[in-house]
Structures are given as structure tokens and as C-alpha cells.
Amino acid sequence: GIIAADIQASLQRLGYNVIGTAASSEEALQKVAAQRPDVVLMDIQLKGELDGIDTAALLRQRFDVPAIFVTAYVDDELLDRAKATEPYGYIVKPIGESDLHPVLQIAFHKHRMERERAKLLLAEQERAEHILSGSLKALVEILGTVSPQALDLGQRLKTYMATLAAHLQIEGTWELEQAALLSQIGYVSVPANPDALVRARSK
Length: 203
What we know:
The protein is mainly α.
């Protein structure tokens, strides 16, 4: 539309690379999936099966692409729905170039900081898991020299955990592995026949 074309021209004059426009929620989802922009300017009244708020929520969920809402008005109901999608800003029509630049710069900065924090948190989690895993394994080895029965118990739990993980289609089994190690210290009791429990739960 004319408004979308005007916004695109303003963004290009400000030095931004615009990958395109979309007239419907379906088209917006397709373009974002194909080109992965850094941010989306989303009209709340977007045409299609989904409005701009619902489309923005899907973009964040599927592609981690944030949205800045563009609207001619915001009533309380729309505002509450929009806030739930954690948008990076609002721009009220009519839109001037002086409105676009600061909102976009803040959005880029916020998204970059969120990604960096996520990377740091993941690195800390992996480090903590590595330390805990090593500590528990060392403790189990020490206990195993005192109580050979503990090693048999731990092996049974590992078999049980592997069976349960496969049944539930669990890919990340780190927590289950730690539970197996903890069982050898006496914190977890293990059924003698793990397959029986899995079959009972699946009924």
C-alpha cells in the first residue's frame, strides 16, 4: 500500500536495508522465514487470518524476530494483547522519519543485548553442568569402592532412564544421567524392572 511504500522509502533514506513488505500475515511469515530480518515493523491491523499482534507473536516464537508495532490507535484491549508479545516499540501513524530512526536503534540495541545475554547464560549453564557431572562421577567412583551394590543400582537406573527417555522421545537426557548418578548415593530408589513402569504409564 501507499503507507508501506512511504515507510520503506523513509527507511532507505535513513540507510536501512528493507527486505520487502507484506500485505497479509501469511505473506509476512513466509518472507521472514526466507530472509530473517533483524526487526519487523508490524501494522496491528494486518490483513489475513491473523492480525498484526498474533503474527508478531509467531515471528518471535518461530524465528526470534522482534516487532515494532505501527498503528493509528491503541485501545486498552489491543494494548494488553500487544504487550504480551513483548514488542520493541510502538509508532503511531502518521509516521515521520524522525519517529523511525530512534525506535529502530533502540530495538536493534535491545535485541543484540538479549542475544548476548542468552549466549552468556548458555555458556554458564554448560559450565555448571560440566562441573556438577564431574563432581558426581568422582563421588560415585569413591562410593563404588566401598559399596559394590551401589554400582549395580546405578546401572539399573541408567537402563531405566534410557528406556524412559526413548519412550518419551526425550533428546536431552543430562538431567536423567545426573539422577542415575545421584541414585548411587542413595537419593533415588529404582524399580527392578524399568520396562514395567514404562508400559504402565503408557496405558
